[in-house]
Amino acid sequence: MRDTERRVGSKRKAAPAAGDHLVYMWTLDGTHAATGNAVRVAGWEDRDLDPSGLITLSHGWFDAADYARQTAPTPGGCGGLT
Fold first, then answer.
1. Residue 22 included in any domain
2. In this predicted structure, what is the pLDDT of residue 66?
3. Which residue range(s) make up the domain with 29?
4. Could you give the count of Cα atoms lying within 13 Å of 1 in the half-sphere of its Cβ?
5. Predicted TM-score (pTM) of this structure
6. Residue 81 falls inside a structural domain
7. Three-class SS state of 62
8. Does any domain span residue 80?
9. 17: DSSP letter
10. Within a domain: residue 82?
């Protein structure tokens, strides 16, 4: 995702850390700046922590095909979630 959303809100939920490992789940809600489509994408990050709790490695995932579907131009210029 790039700087294409406006009026973005997000919900975050971090699962308790298990030793040096943490799973971070999130949902992004916003409006795509170019198309005006409503966008809702969920994803998660798998993080490794150092002994002081700082992130040393983070890998993230989200459904890129769903994001592309939601941000694609629609006939008539009307966007929105279905």
1. yes
2. 95
3. 5-75
4. 26
5. 0.65
6. no
7. strand
8. no
9. P
10. no
